[in-house]
Design goal:
With 328 residues, this protein is α/β, with parallel strands linked by helices. It is 40% helix and 19% strand.
């Protein structure tokens, strides 16, 4: 009887250990790697939105998911090393932020079995991340920040009714910038604009290249460029000297009184779009079957700075006085 009782207790202990082990396995957190290009408000918002959407879909940070975040301070030469470190942790998914990071990750992670969801990519087809806008690629899909260029120009015409020449500084070495410039050129005739494009290869050229717009452009539109946005204060200073107002693709610089106006994509929403896609992938959906998402018109918003408009010597049109988009 004592042996039977002892055996029964022993069996219960083993069973309990097995159940505890199974419970521990069930509670094991999913690891997600986040490969960012550098610290910038737009990119930070896309990461925050990503986490928010995942939490809303049952993947809560600290409970269900643990994130490893890394960035290279916008140094493309360090991206392969960053991707390798994230890959070594064997994550269930890697979230890549910006086109350069996503392009390098696509090559580095090919055949690894680790799915990639990208964000802050303007044209994933031109960047060769996906074969078309209708589908993802093997192990990769994501959310784009493709702006409604026609809406940007419509807003610019309302703000600056007499503007006819639309200046666009861009980085010729960045796929996002080149793709967006092509879309701007396509939309310009219908909006009544002539496009004046100037290439900027590095931050040391900003003063000279922006100054070259003098007498050639009536407004400068600064795209969501990984070269230009971190240096938007320098772009603005050069444009102010040239007497050319700026419409920016990011509203942060408007809120800070650095540039006069913006018509911007909400990067928190872009990140949420990516997070919803990531949730589908984590639940077993093949990335190849998920088309890259685009921001809806409602995901854009205008903003005007009274302070910066005055600094550029431009008056806010009466027609926009009640737009609800003016900050001090």
């Amino acid at each position: 009887m004592r042996k039977l009782k002892s055996g029964l207790l022993s069996g219960l202990v083993v069973a309990g250990a097995l159940i505890a082990g199974l419970g521990g396995a069930a509670a094991e957190q999913i690891r997600i790697g986040i490969a960012n290009f550098g610290e910038h408000p737009q990119l930070a918002a896309s990461i925050a939105g990503f986490k928010k959407a995942l939490a809303e879909n049952g993947f809560v940070e600290g409970t269900d998911v643990v994130y490893t975040e890394s960035h290279t301070n916008f140094d493309a030469s360090l991206v392969p090393q960053m991707i390798a470190k994230l890959q070594a942790e064997q994550p269930k998914l890697i979230y890549t932020v910006t086109t350069p990071v996503s392009q390098i990750a696509k090559k580095a992670l090919a055949g690894s079995g680790i799915p990639v969801v990208f964000t802050a990519v303007t044209d994933p087809v031109a960047a060769k991340l996906v074969p078309s806008w209708e589908s993802g690629d093997e192990g990769m899909t994501g959310a784009t920040d493709l702006q409604d260029v026609a809406a940007v120009m419509e807003f610019t015409k309302k703000l600056l009714p007499n503007a006819k020449r639309f200046g666009v500084p861009y980085n010729p070495g960045e796929a996002n910038d080149v793709a967006l410039l092509e879309k701007i050129k396509e939309a310009a005739p219908a909006a009544g604009f002539e496009v004046v494009a100037v290439g900027v290869d590095n931050v040391n050229e900003i003063q000279q290249r922006i100054a070259s717009f003098a007498g050639k452009a009536d407004v400068i539109y600064t795209p969501a460029s990984n070269l230009l946005q971190p240096a938007v204060a320098a772009v603005s200073a050069a444009a102010r000297q040239a007497g050319i107002p700026i419409v920016n693709s990011d509203d942060g610089a408007v809120r800070n009184g650095v540039v006069p106006a913006s018509f911007a994509v909400n990067y928190d929403q872009v990140g949420m779009n990516a997070g919803k896609i990531a949730a589908e992938v984590l639940k077993g959906k093949d990335p190849k079957t998920i088309p890259p998402s685009r921001p809806a018109y409602a995901d854009h918003a205008p903003l005007i700075s009274k302070k910066a408009m005055a600094a550029f010597g431009v008056e806010i049109p009466e027609s926009m006085a009640d737009c609800g988009c003016i900050v001090d």
